[in-house]
Amino acid sequence: MTYENLDAKLVNALLGNGRASLRSLGEDLDVSVTTVSNHLRDLEEEGVIEGYTPRVNYDKLGYDVTAIVQLKVEGEALPEIVDRLEDQKQMVSVYEVTGDYDVIAIGKFTDTDEMNEGIKGLLADADIRETNTSVVLNTVVENGQFDLDVE
Known about the structure:
Blueprint (H helix, E strand, L loop, with lengths): L2 H14 L5 H8 L3 H13 L19 E9 L4 H10 L3 E6 L6 E7 L2 H12 L4 E8 L16
Antiparallel strand pairs: 1-3, 1-4, 2-3
Helix pairs in contact: 1-3, 2-3
């Protein structure tokens, strides 16, 4: 088994169970605990694995309104606007994009009043020329990850 192949299999195993022990990963991959530990450390140092976190179902916690906000921003203000969005706790994803809009932000809110308050705060900024907001009706896939190809 090549190192790249082992790394891909290790990532896939962690995608299946991020809480797996080094011992169980070693058994599943048919390598020693030391080998798993070394490869895992390397993947973390290279930034391939950025941490271990639970998948939270925000709907079950009362954040059942998901909004997708598209923003047109004055060019030089883009870094500041993106930083502000990143600092808002309800924004779970913020992207600088190509196309008609400059930024797409995805937020989770407890209700439409909270969503409206957040969006009105954005509209008050003179550097934001335009927004377009879509409310998600049905979440089909969220925070999806995919297994890496293994030769």
